[in-house]
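Support reply, case 0932

Customer input (verbatim):
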Amino acid sequence: MGSPKVEVRRSSRRRRTVSAYREGDTVVVLIPATMSKKAEQEWVATMVQRLERRERKRKPPDEALLARALDLSDRYLGGLADPESVRWVDNQNARWGSCTPGDKTIRISSRLKGMPLWVLDYVVLHEITHLLEPSHDEKFWAWVNAYPKAERAKGYLEGWSAAREEEPTDAD
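Our regenerated output:
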């Protein structure tokens, strides 16, 4: 994948602390204005590594998504939903996820990366439930609403959409 683009911002108000965050595709590292170039290089490497480690924990790869879906199926659907694949996609801007029951494939919008894991779990559970109930009927919602944070996750997604002036959408 290569090294990310890094922007170092020096601050005269910052005395000892160093922090980093992602701004689009750029890693921004905030350091004290008095820091030496050598210390800057060391801190940039450290902070990029820490940020990437933190992001890996919050953005599971496709294999982890499948494992997560199987675990959710076991916990909330009695193990009845058995997806063939669950993967991140970048082309879903109007939906949080989608399911094709015929080939048992689930696609999860990459917009969910970095959101709380309980929100991701809700969307994954929503989609794998379509393997049991293709429509949004009462039986479908009975399965999905067994997830303890279902209403909270729906509210989170609606709030996220509203904050970006998007039309609120369901999981699919």
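We compared this against your earlier run and they match. Two observations from our side: The radius of gyration is 20 Å. The longest helix spans residues 37-58. Please reopen the case if you see a mismatch on your end.
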